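Structure tokens please, single chain.
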Amino acid sequence: MLLWGKWRYDLVAFGALSIGLLLGVIPKEAAFSGFGHPAVIIIALVLIVSRALSQSGAIEMLTSRFINSSRPLPLHIAAMGFLGAVLSAFMNNVAALALLMPVDIQAAKKARRSPALSLMPLSFATILGGMATLIGTPPNIVISQFRETALGAPYKMFDFAFVGFGTAIIGLAFVALIGWRLVPSARSIQNGSKELSNLEDYIVEIGVPVKSKAVGKTIKDLHEVAEENDVLILGLVRNGKRLPGRALRAEIRKGDLMVLEAGPKALESFANALKLSYSRAAKHTGPLAGTLKMVEAAVPAESRIAGRSALDLRLLYRHGIMLLGVSREGEPFRERVRSLEIKPGDVLLLMGTSEHIDDIIDWLEVMPLAPRGLQVTQHDKAWMAISLFSVAIILASLGVVYLPIALSACVVLYVVLKVVSLGQVYDSIQWPVIVLLASLIPLGAALEQSGGTALIAGAIVDFTVGWSAVAVLALLMVVTMTLSDVLNNVATVLVAAPIAVEIAKRLDVNPDAMLMGVAVAASCAFLSPIGHKNNTIIMGPGGYRFGDYWRMGLPLELLIIAVSIPLIMFFWPL
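Here you go.
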């Protein structure tokens, strides 16, 4: 069900937990034990800390000093990739990408090149950086807590750095020097400016109010005004139905919707010229001017609008926000956008009043493609936020304070010192991930206790009879990496970690080596946009297609296996 992707992964996981309870394969005492598991708590706390660091202005301080759009592309990718990797090592890697993606897109616009050339390297860099520390990525947290259950002690904060840091450095060097040249698009490389303009072209519906200059005219009569404003008129919608053809000779009436292909600036100038309205609703009849603001935003998998339409959420009637257009894989969608089911990776063109649209962006949980100056408002608390987090990490690394306690204290101080509000604390947690992990933990325990893990491990050991332990480790990493490319990486770890320990017992080798192999492999999902959320997020803004990722992703995954296995053998010998 998770591979099929028909239903969202948290629903599938919780449904499986419920079925397991009904069938009796999971004892009722363990039903909801996952919701209090340390791995779940740590992941939630890391998400809150990430929000606080962003809210305080700490990340903006780094990016303003680090990023220079005038650099040659390889140096720009190296700088952005290094910064993304460092941030991802200490905060959620999705949050790191969300902070840096608008900066990278703006740099691409200034340099007059396609963002496709740098967004995929940036996404891969943030994934690589998460491997270096315990809190950098959920698989490491899950692996650490599983080790405590299976072997008696969890991994410490920087135990993953011995392998993860070296692997990330080599991976970043490949991405900056070679990998970006493999970015899938000859179409992007040949005509970067066209790719950028594709990002700004949307199919939009604009209302014709009573006082509009378009009333009584035909589409043919408006061609001259449309050409002056770089707008293409595609047709008319009347009483909820599209008029046949392009309705060139149909007289435009009040209340009609004019279907246009246009970018945000062209749309505004065209609407002002003809006194058009962005809605026919009585409370939203003003022209496109004044306090109205347009924002482009990418849709992650956990967004409130993913899998739903603007009509389902009643964006216009409840919130006064208009969905003007949708861009999918770099191309404008040519259907009625307000009834269109939105998919992860889409880019939305939203419009509303300046005072409301930023709140709606947060409510929808979408990621704006341009920096929002309103988000960072507490520059005086940047160093405070960094200092508190650093103290928590140092105390946890030295074993003075248990990591969940250290992070909990940090979050409490953030709230007390008003770095983040209580509302932001709850909003920053990705609840679908929490439900997924909390549901799969008792399922994984049941698989192990029932002998299912031993059965799978035995099959692998029998298949590899006569192989060296290093070859078995390599096979385990390849299988885990392949699963991670099509499955959520947390789910992958919960399946692979028990198998890794069981294989180590049967081969009588160091289980830490097998667990480190699983940790590295589960974090490396570079072959598709569904393997990691960061790859999904960049799909729309970069104009990537499903089959574009493997061109840089496949050699990168092979390189990571080649580099990480010797590092594992050196630091965690079999």
